[in-house]
Each structure stands twice: as C-alpha cells, then as structure tokens.
Amino acid sequence: MTEWDFERDPLVKSNAGTLARTALANVVREYPHHESHWQLDGVPILSPRLSHPCFYGSFDWHSCVEMFWVLVRLLRHHAELVPAEEIRDVLGEHLTVEALAGEAAYFAPEEHRTTQRPYGWSALLELTFETVTWVDPDAARWSAGLQELSSVFVNRYLDWLPRAGYPIRYGVHDNGAFGLSRALPYAGYLADHGDPRLRGLITETAWRWFGSDRDYPASWEPSGADFLSPALAEAELMSRLMPAAEFAGWLDGFLPGIAERKPATLFTPVLETDTSDGQLAHLHGLNLHRAWCWHRIADALPGDDDRIPAMLEATHAHTHASLAQTTGGAYMVEHFLAYYALLLLG
Fold first, then answer.
1. Partner of 153 for a Cys bridge, out of 10, 76, 121, 182, CB 3.0 to 4.6 A?
2. Mean pLDDT by 10-residue block, N- to C-terminus, for the chain (346 residues)?
C-alpha cells in the first residue's frame, strides 16, 4: 500500500457526498447546453431533452454520461457516504429502456458516425461496464437498457480504428489514448463473454499508434485548454497492455528523466485563472487527470522502481491543486470535474 492509498480513503469520505449532490444536480440541469449539430435541410434541431431523453443535462452529452457514471460508481462502492435512495431514484428514472432507445436512435444515422468520437463513446462504455459488472437488481435493469446504445459505439469503434492511421494526441476530447483506455475495461468484459473483437482491436491500435514512441516532448505541455495530459494518457494506456517489467522499459524510453522529476512541466500543477471561462476551466481537469495517471503508472511498475516516489509526489501535488475546485464554483468547472475527482479517488 502506497502513501497515496493512505491519503485517498479520507479524501473519499470527505468528498463523496458533495460529489453525489453535484452529479444529481447536473444530470437534470438542461441549460446552459453546448452541442454540435449536423444541420440537414428540413430537419429541425430539437431541444436537449428531446434530442437526448436520458443524457440531456450537465452542459454537454459526454459530461452528462460521466455524471451518471459518478452516481453509479458512488452508489456501488460508497453507498454509506451518499444519498443512496435518491441516487437510485434518479438513475431509475433516466436509465430506462425507452429513454436509452431514444439515445441510440439519435446516434444511429450515418451523419452521426463521428459524433462524440471517441470521448463520449468511451464514457458510455465505461458507464455500461460499471453497471454490467455490478451484481444488483437495479444495475441489471440499467445495464439492459444501455446495451443497444453500447452496441452502437462498439460498432463505431470497430469501424473506425482499422482506418485510423494516426493517433490524435492533443489534450482534449479527441485524444486517442484516453478514449482507448476508458473503453478497454468494457472491451475486456465483452472478450470474457465471447466477443474479443474490440479488445483485440484496441490492443493492436494502441501498439500501432504508441508502441514505438520514444523521448516524448512532454516539456511542451500543457496547451492552454487541456484537461488531459497527452503524455501521461499515453503512458497510462500502455501500462494496461504489458507486464510491469516490460512497461518499465517502455516508459524509460518514452519519458526518460522521471526519477529526476523531468520535465518539470509534468510535475508542476497548472494554474487556472478564470473558472468561468469554459476553456481555461479545463485546466483543473488536467491537474486531476495528471494525478490519476501518475498514480496509475506508479501502480503498474515493479514495487522497487526508483521513479515511484516522484510519481506519488506529483499525484499529491496535482490532487491538492484542484480537488477543492470540484464543487461549489462556476458551472464551467462543476459540470465535469466531479468525474475526474472520482476517477482519481476511486
């Protein structure tokens, strides 16, 4: 057990209730709303609730899916710390077969084959994984409702990845490494239940995109609207795909200098100057994403690796730079940051 593991438990206890309340409010807050639409002749653009009978809240579609994951995750693992019955009621009202069929109908047309790729796709598969692997009568109903929509995105991945010759590396929604990492657990579930296609394709794509990467220019991070670290997202993904000793060697070539805390930019929390600015507000997400990645990467290495102390120090510093900003502030932060907080806290 690491120093971070000792710190994480009290952080969960002190934050779980507030995260739950934030997510409960977000998933039913229809406006303000942001969404890109195909405009087709004679086809009206509907309101968020009519377009998305389940995931209409939390400012944008993918953040709403993430907030539902927050609720399911908290209910599953920390029910004693959250308003459990209220969460079950909200989940039961939204994750219905009828509402989720409406979501599947929205994404099914050809003009939507790139919509929410890959960030929203992987968020939905992550939510599906959380429900389908939970032995609980309500979760079984929610999982059944999610199957049709999950199948849409699984098929979209199966169609897209063989044709995607190059990764997208920047630190926002299109980032390929983070999308694959979040989709991988559900892909593993499908493989364990007789359909190995997505897991095999994700693994092959990750190696094709990232396996030979060396000397990553992480000193160039961050960009001004990042909520993901491209360098650490890639390393976190690759940590899932190889044994500890092999990953240790790959990481040494990819990010040399970690033990010396180089490059300094990856070990220094970023500063956010205006939480009401939707792009600048992303930087709080970057701090929490970095903290999660550093801990995940440290946990994937052999226990005596001399880089682990630097990684855990970075986990601590980035956590405390932005965790307090998760709730109670501007909606440009509050509509999404609870997801990254719970991703980190577990």
1. 121
2. 77 96 98 92 92 98 98 98 98 98 97 97 98 98 98 98 98 98 98 98 98 97 97 98 98 98 97 91 97 98 97 97 94 97 96
